[in-house]
Amino acid sequence: MTDSNAAAAAERARAGADEFTEVFNRVKAQVSRLIVGQEEVIDGVLTALMCGGHVLLEGVPGLGKTMLVKSLGEALNLKFSRIQFTPDMMPADIQGTMVLTETKGGGHELTFQQGPLIANLVLADEINRATPKTQSALLEAMQERQVTVGRRTIRLDEPYSVMATQNPVEQEGTYPLPEAQLDRFLFKQIVSYPREEEYAPILERTTGEQDVVIEPVADAETIVRLRAVARAVAVPEVAQRYAVQLVMGTQPDSDYAPDSIGAYVALGSSPRGAQGLILGGKVRALLSGRFSVSTDDIRSVALPVLRHRILVNFHAQANRVTPDLLVDDVLQSVEPPHTAS
Amino acid sequence: MPAKPAPDRLQDQLNRLAAQGARRLKRWVLRCACDRYLKLLFPAALCVSGAILLAELLDTAAGTSLWPFGLAVTVLVALALPVLAVAGCVLFDFARHRIDRRMCLALYDRDLGLKDRLQAADQYLSKADRSDFEQAAVEDARGHVQTALDRKLPPVAIRPPDWIPPHRRLGALAVVLLVAALWTGQYSASQASAGETLVADAIPGDLRRDSDLTQVLPDPLQPRPASLAARRNTEVEVPDSEAESRPSEMEAREFSAQRQSDNRSAAGSDARRSNRARQAQSGASGQRAEKQEQDESEPRKNEPREQKPRDPPKEEEDQPKESAGLKGGKGEMSGGRMAASDHAAAQDKTQQPEPEGDSDYGDEEEDEEQKAGSASKPLISQRKAPVNRSLTPSADGNEERDDLNGRGGPSGLKKTRGVAAMLLGVPLPDYLQGKVNPGRMKIQSEQGRAEEHQADPAQARERPARDAAVGHTLHREIPPLGRDVVRNYFLAQRTNGEEAPEEIE
After folding, report:
1. Is B115–A288 a contact, with Cβ atoms under 8 angstroms apart?
2. Are A44 and A55 in contact (CB under 8 A)?
3. What DSSP designation does A292 have?
4. What is the least distance, in Å, from the CA of B136 to any CA of chain A?
5. Would you call B351 exposed, middle or buried from its count of C-beta atoms within 10 A (0-12, 13-18, 19+)?
6. In angstroms, rounded to a whole number, what is the distance separating the alpha carbons of residues B149 and B105?
7. Size of interface A-B (CB pairs under 8 A)
8. Do B106 and A232 touch (CB under 8 A)?
9. Which residue of A51, A267, B282, B312 has the lowest C-beta tally within 10 Å?
């Protein structure tokens, strides 16, 4: 590679990274006009969107989970749909179904009526209230980006992202998400209570006269282009090895697993966890103004990527050992490669 | 915009950084090894001093020569051996660590907070076909590599370990043990020299030559006596001290016989081994024993028969045995009891054809021995251990044991007879492994009694006519045929009968 080619290549990468950062910050600013605080959650949701992943938001009612996803859809000017999951909901209710319609001539024909799953940004509200049958209807859409109803297969438009919410309390009458479903979410973000200083702006924005209007600052094409930029970020060997070691550290009987993993974990992370670490690390590297992923980027996304991929056993539940504690333990015990210590 | 350095320059800079990092890491690895193994210095010194002390004690007590070195060598070994051992461990640990180039660059990445920029650039520089972002990562590292080169990492100092009080106590204990070992060595040396002086004064001139000979040419198979002083007393016949040494010798015999009977079963194999060694030893020293016996029997032959009943006879019998056992190299078991090989050798000697003129003397001696044997009690040391009469079945029924002589107690085969064989005494393995133990269960049943409840009686009354809305009624599904009929009817109504209704499909 000659010097001029190298300089041009570096310039192209720099331009893509700059555009990525600019759009990211603009979208975040629009969402932050409505959502007060929750910086980590907003960053996580936007990061997952830029990676092409799905997000599971967990928090008690009233913390703005649904509003966050709605405002994100408005800021990105994407086709947004919302599904309120209930126990009696059937897969056809979200995927769509064939209905008998009357033609102008008085005849009848079966036509496909699309369900709310076919959109760009899908808010699956209280996803754990649906039966496993309905929850499983999301699997194909989330992984293969397509919906199959009968003999009809519909490709979903890009960008496609599912933002699901669930309530950690009121577990009666709910159906916990199966592992296969959980594994398809790139991030699991915990929405916590706002801090004291954040209550005042929340009350001003929600009880005042003026409604906050979210302006669209990006569109679907921009998101697709920026996704390609994010995927082009270089991943050095040190970051890749660290991601693999972190994922293996969550698996019992692994060489990298600390003692707590062997004692409290029934099922560790799958290779999808390593994919999530790398993709999330790429977005964090771009946002930090770098062109290659570092081990610190991997560490910064380890908690939202791995916490829902760790299935704890009975002993952990009895001792109140949460997956977050176990991920912290893995982060402390697994050191980045080539560390002298 | 400053001119970008050539790619080769970046590579050189990274090489220099890697070399600097490698030097630092080597020093750091050495320090870690020192921290790890210098703590073992005092325990090692303690072990060495203890071993020297033990060897000196054994030399003093058993007359062995495990530690034949002098004062200077002892001190030198006690000081140098722990240091050499720790140094060897440190060097082994240092050589075991392999310092990687990426590790050296990671050192600067971590120290300067460069987020792995140097490692990434070093990786991508070796690639010929770099992507846009890889090239950008290389260009990004150029601005930081000079900063890393200018950065002086804090030096790694090799420091002595923190001697915590347990370490200090171990060191003090090592010094105490070393001093004790030195004192023991000095004491045993002084004792040996004093003993040699006494013996040299007491030994006549002709015997001194023999003792010198035995010292110059020691028999390698001859077991060493309990102490140097005892060896001196038994090797040399000192007429003046014979009366004094007899009582102590008898006491030692009784004590050792009692001890031998206690440890009989444990020492059986050892005794057999020592007997084999003594048999070989007796073969090797047979010539000297025969010569000694001949020397001692010749005066007896020349003595007249009236002087044969000597008093005491037992002492005279012991005398040639003892002298033959000591000078002829025959082994003697502790407690003065002759080993089996010695008995065999004595029997062989008695079975040897004797000169004809001495046949009467030999017969009379045999009679005396029989009388003495019938009159005396069996020795405690010759008593056998009681037979094990335990009915507990052993794990291996065919196991041969020394204490079973075929009489009395049940052997492995006999245990299968009788009532003991009918009892299930052998624990059976649990073939249901992994079955959860339900624990102690307690079932408590309680009797319940049915209770009768009274319900309010329903009063019969007239049902009035419905005057309100019916409300939601169940919608009954109309079959497709009926739906078409209804639809056609209303279409016909809408068109006021202008068009005929459609036919039912």
Report:
1. yes
2. yes
3. B
4. 4
5. exposed
6. 11
7. 97
8. no
9. B312
* Chain A interface includes B120 (CB < 8 A): yes
Tell me which chain A residues have a C-beta less than 8 angstroms from the C-beta of B129: 1
pLDDT over 50 at B16, yes or no? yes
Query: Is residue B208 situated within a structural domain?
Result: no
Domains A3-226 and A233-333 share a fold: no
B285 neighbors B219 (Cβ within 8 angstroms): yes
Contact A279, A51 (CB under 8 A): yes
In chain A, residues with a C-beta closer than 8 Å to the C-beta of B124 are 234, 236, 292
pLDDT of residue B470 exceeding 60, the answer is: yes
Confirm whether B151 is domain-assigned.
yes
Is-contact A26 A289, C-beta < 8 A?
no
How far is Cα A198 from Cα A35, in angstroms, rounded to an integer?
10
Does some domain include residue B71? Answer: yes
In single-letter form, the type of residue at position A165 comes to T
Q: What's the rounded Cα separation, in Å, for the pair A50 and A284?
A: 11
Looking at the DSSP bridge assignments, the partners of residue A189 are A57
Contact by Cβ (8 Å): A336, A246: no
Which residues numbered 280-299 in A keep a CB inside 8 Å of some CB on B?
288, 290-292, 294-297
> Which of residues 222 through 261 in chain A touch B, CB cutoff 8 A?
232-234, 236-239
Positive or negative: CA dihedral B445, B446, B447, B452? negative
Domain edges within chain A: 3-226, 233-333
Contacts of A335 (CB under 8 A, 6+ apart): A341
Which architecture, in CATH terms, is A3-226?
A: 3-Layer(aba) Sandwich (3.40)
Residue B291 has pLDDT above 70, yes or no: no
> 3-state secondary structure string, B145-188?
HHHHHHCCCCCCCCCCCCCCHHHHHHHHHHHHHHHHHHHHHHHH
Domains identified in chain B, total number: 1
**Of chain A residues 299-338, which have a CB less than 8 A from chain B?**
336-338
Q: Which residues of A touch B123 (CB under 8 A)?
A: 236-237
Tell me how many helices (H) and strands (E) chain B has: 17, 0
ipTM over 0.85: no
CA distance A251 to chain B (A): 25
* pLDDT tens-digit readout, A224-279: 999 999 998 989 988 999 999 999 999 988 888 888 888 888 888 889 999 999 99
Q: Scan for tokens 């990445």, then name that residue.
A: B109
Q: Where is A96: in which H helix or E strand?
A: strand A96-102
| Phi, psi for residue A156 in degrees, rounded to 5 | -90, 145
The answer to whether B133 faces chain A, any CB pair under 8 Å, is: yes
Instruction: Give residue B65's domain range.
Output: 7-173
Does B116 contact A340 at a Cβ distance shorter than 8 Å? no
Give the strand pairing for A161-166 and A55-58. Answer: parallel
Is B270 contained in some domain? no
What's the mean pLDDT in A305-331? Answer: 88
